[in-house]
Design brief:
Length: 435
Amino acid sequence: MVYSGYEMIWLFFLYSFLGWIFETAAAAARQKRFVNRGLVNAPLCVIYGFSAVAVTVFCQELDGFWLFAGSLIITTLIEWTAGHWIERFYHERWWDYSNIKGNLDGYICLPMSLLWAVLCVIMNEWGNPLLMSAFHWIPSMPGKIIIWILSGVLAADIAATLILLSRRSRRMEQWRDVDSWLTGISSNLERRIYGWVDRRIQRAYPNAKHKAAEADDQIRTAVFAYGCSFYKILWLLVIGSLLGDVTETLFCRATMGVWMSRSSVVWGPFSLVWGIAMAAATLLLYKYKDRSDRFLFIAGTCLGGAYEYICSVLTELVFGKVFWDYSRIPFNLGGRINLLYCFFWGIAAVIWIKGLYPVLSSWIEKIPMRVGKILSWILIVFFCCNIAVSCMALVRSNQRVQGIPAEHTWQKVMDEKYDDQRLKEIYPNAIQVEE
């Protein structure tokens, strides 16, 4: 079942609230007192809401075992990413499964992943229909107003909480302990707010461990794109997009005997699917660069398959087109992924982390600091414009199929510059999905 935007936001808030109840009850049972387990101050655990929406969107075509497997992979990836994100930006570990067998870095473990998968199956089979029936009992306009109000309050809550936690992390890094960093805050009001946030986090996550930043600040300021930084990831995305397009073009030439465009955008030979994959693989697997090839292969196979499936669903939902179809390849799942190509993702992960990444990383870090930053922002502007125009061209293509006339300027420009024939040259494998 396909849900509307308002319905998805409704599910997000309800599952965030239910997740907050679950986490708070579990914490109260362990600590014998009430604690707010949410990242934000409101009674919401947004990771539950985000996970529920992600599973609802990307697993809507699945059932039975495949629904369970898809839920397992998505929820595990979200929990793993969230744990590393908190540690990277706030230098703290808020949960730890290190004492449970089958864990990875203490952030995920097999028993908890299985539990999340079971809960997601229950959610898809019974929870979503029940909550949707409750939503449809609310009159349309009041329901939309409630959702807008909740969204605005949550956005402000998240922004304030992230700012406070970020400053708290910096001060903790500077003074090393709570009492010391509190004394470094000049404003009484500011001190009270920091103290309140810190006490809430400490009560919610009593086992949280502060972790000092690993990077050498002097090297970071002297070397462009040092470590796994923002600029490094940006350049890897660009290089990966270019290499991916070239690789796929040569592969099509070798297997089908034709030169075929494999670009994701209308300007230049850039396959963003590959670029984003390489950037994401670096972010997720950089910490495991010294692990065995077998570990990287398994991780790459699972992550690559999940990533390709999500990309396929997302592009179909947004643009109404299918950009690849593996239905004729054995062991495929809905034509979106297949076992052979998942193995290719695993092999690519090993080659990337063990072979290509160290070389490209060293080359990028040799770029002068000032030149590197200027070029980086030029690339950011170029790719933002490129992606925006590509999205408008694809959206307009879908509108033409639906018989929507060009009334606005951007629609007329897209019809003139990127008509169906031009888009067929850029996206030769794109197939329009029938409504």
